[in-house]
Amino acid sequence: MILIKKLFRYFSRKIYVMKNILILVLFCLGFNFKSFSQDLSNYNSFIKDNFPEYFEHFKITDFKNFKVENTNTFNLTDDVEVFKLNEWSDFLATDNEFFIYNSTKSYAVNFNTYGDIDQAVLLIDVKNKQYHKLTFCGSPCRYEEAKWVNDAVVILVGGFEDNDKYNAVTKQSKYFGMLMVVDLDKKTRTIYFNKLDEADTFFSGKLFKNRIWD
Question: Would you tell me how many other CB atoms lie within 10 Å of the CB of residue 195?
Fold first, then answer.
């Protein structure tokens, strides 16, 4: 009986210690994730001032409705594709009007790569004539506008089709807001979804309104 009590106390202490270690680990992971992802509150005023049509389209009521969907780091040295001389010239000839440059024109964002069906969002290193693919959108999603906060931070806004709310009778879907914050200094990319403020149609930004697709 004494042995059983000793064993019980021993394992109780072990469980207590392990539980506290687990709590500490989870806390650290949560803290690191929060630090790793971009804090959207830093850009609330900028987003509201620079994307008024986006706000109106989705009837956005609160920035807290945007939740982190995905965040990661990227490498601008290793994970790049380099243009050959003729490729760079051809690319500028067809896509330069869709480049969104930072103030020094050292970097640009381009999201016109695959026309009206699939879309690759590219970060263009103008000086070195190379690019990094920030993200890829299939037919359910699309980025439509981008603005540079400064030379290192760019924000892109767009929409995503909510297939879970597809109406088979009307053959209509709902669409929710999506935005991405890219920080070149921190080498981070964070995508946010706002599934609470929805619209009946895709958001169409200024850049592509007059675009005639091939």
Answer: 17
- Closest C-alpha to 160, from 105, 201, 111, 99: 201
Residue entry with tokens 């207590």: 16
Tell me which residue of 149, 141, 119 sits closest to 211, measured CA to CA: 119
Each residue of 3-59: pLDDT tens digit?
554 544 554 555 544 544 444 434 444 434 344 445 788 899 999 999 999 999 999
Query: Which residue, 43, 88, 40, is CA-closest to 66?
Result: 40
Give per-residue pLDDT as tens, 74-111.
887 777 888 887 888 888 888 888 899 999 999 999 87
* 63 assigned to some structural domain: yes
List of long-range contacts for 88-92, beta carbons under 8 Å, 24+ apart: 88/129
Residues 138 and 160 sit within 8 Å (Cβ to Cβ): no
For 38, residues 6+ apart whose C-beta sits below 8 A from its C-beta are 71, 181, 183, 188, 190
Into how many domains does the chain fold?
Answer: 1
Q: Which domain holds residue 128?
A: 39-199
Q: Is residue 47 part of a domain?
A: yes
